[in-house]
Structure formats: C-alpha cells, structure tokens
Amino acid sequence: MPCGSSLRRGQTLEERAREVTAALRQLEARLQAGQVRVTVGPSGSLAFTGWSTEDRSQVTDVCAYRLLSAQNSWALRQAVSRAEAQSGRRINPAAVASGMHSHDNGQTWNKGH
User: Above 90 in pLDDT, residue 77?
Assistant: First the structure.
C-alpha cells in the first residue's frame, strides 16, 4: 500500500491499511457532499481543499488521488471534472506522478519531497 509507509511507532501494516481506508471513505463522502473540493494547480497537479489535517490521517493528496483513481471513485471523478472545468486546466498525470503538491489548499505548489 503506497500510503502505508508512514507507520506510527507500534502500528502494524494492517492497522495503517484500516486507517487509510477509513480516511479515503470519509474523503469520498465529503467530496460527494461538496465539503471537500479538488483544486488543479498551474502544472496540472491537484490538492484537496477542505480536507483537514485531522481527517486525512497523514494521507497525502497525491496518495489519496492515486488510490481513489485506482478504485474508479465516482465522487473523485465528479470533483475532478468540476475542478478542471472551473480552472480551465486538466490534471496532468506527470505532475501527479512527480509528487507536485500543495500544503495550503492550492495557494502555493511544491515539488515532491
């Protein structure tokens, strides 16, 4: 699991997998309800606006996007479509793969680190 590398002391991989799954379920529900939005950056990278630090369980935007995309999430597809239409830019898979991300809801963008 790509998001499973940030284990807390004493946490098992199974526990981390459950934690990530719960965070993604909650993100999907909030995307569907419009409480979290997708922001498309100038390079085509993305950020989830409104997804709090407490809710994300140390899951990065890029990791969440990759996992929900792999699951063919309807809520994510709808949110991405809205974001692309509003920004006039498409999500760029190369930018996502490079780890380009935002720590401030899409105000500034950082290269992968």
Answer: yes
